[in-house]
């Protein structure tokens, strides 16, 4: 079994088990607290807002549908067929298109680029979940998709997020209900050093146009009743020459 196959099967199991309702998954926060905030940082750097917007790692499509209200063509892509079933079920009007896609596979990225042309990309919390050996290939796929005119907005957990997650997982009462399935399916967040993301982008031929820090909002609450927020960093990337 290849690394990618193990990763895909873990996500299939997770999404087959996940409830249908929005907000039932740990990271499925309402768009006003996620993509809405990110879009305010992203839009100023788009050279062509008319390009197709690809929500890479779209999951159940909550953020995809938000983006589809704001851009003329939005495509949600994910490695998991079960995730896409959730997304399509939640989008009966077909606001966005959804398709199975593995960005690590070079030929798949090339095929999607041939179909859509240069695209803008929104990706939240995907790189740190990828297998370490796949991360550069994933960013290479992003570079293929954005081409010369597109821009990518990438949000990733910072190094400070892992101790927070581990503390929640090792709580005497066990991990919070929405975090437990992530660990149970073997997709516990990996660690990506903060300085590794710029290196992945540079190696793929992309430059950083803007960057910053912003908490990644979850749908879970701590014992004190406050919503769990995870330290994260964001970058806008694209061709710089």
From TrEMBL:
InterPro entries: Methyltransf_25 (IPR041698), SAM-dependent_MTases_sf (IPR029063). It comes from the Bacteria. Residues 54-148 form the Methyltransferase domain. Gene3D superfamilies: Vaccinia Virus protein VP39 (3.40.50.150). Keywords: Methyltransferase, Transferase. Pfam families: Methyltransf_25. The keyword Phosphoprotein does not apply. GO terms for biological process: methylation. GO terms for molecular function: methyltransferase activity. This is Class I SAM-dependent methyltransferase. It comes from Streptomyces coerulescens.
């Amino acid at each position: 079994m290849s690394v990618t196959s193990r990763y895909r099967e873990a996500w299939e199991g997770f999404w087959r088990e996940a409830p249908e309702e929005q907000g039932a998954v740990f990271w499925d926060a309402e768009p006003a607290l996620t993509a809405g905030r990110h879009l305010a940082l992203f839009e100023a750097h788009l050279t062509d807002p008319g390009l197709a917007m690809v929500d890479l790692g779209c999951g159940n499509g909550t953020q995809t549908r938000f983006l589809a209200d704001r851009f003329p063509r939005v495509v949600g892509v994910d490695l998991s067929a079960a995730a896409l079933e959730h997304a399509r079920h939640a989008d009966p009007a077909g606001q966005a298109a959804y398709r199975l896609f593995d960005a690590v596979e070079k030929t798949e990225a090339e095929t999607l680029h041939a179909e859509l042309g240069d695209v803008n990309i929104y990706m939240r919390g995907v790189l740190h979940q990828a297998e370490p050996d796949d991360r550069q290939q994933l960013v290479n796929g992003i570079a293929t998709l954005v081409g010369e005119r597109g821009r990518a907005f990438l949000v990733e957990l910072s190094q400070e997020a892992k101790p927070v997650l581990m503390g929640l997982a090792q709580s005497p009462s066990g991990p919070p209900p929405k975090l437990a399935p992530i660990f149970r399916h073997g997709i516990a967040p990996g660690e990506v050093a903060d300085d590794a993301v710029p290196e992945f982008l540079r190696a793929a031929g992309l430059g950083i146009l803007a960057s910053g820090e912003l908490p990644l909002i979850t749908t879970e609450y701590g014992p004190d009743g406050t919503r769990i927020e995870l330290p994260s960093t964001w970058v806008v990337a694209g061709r710089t020459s």
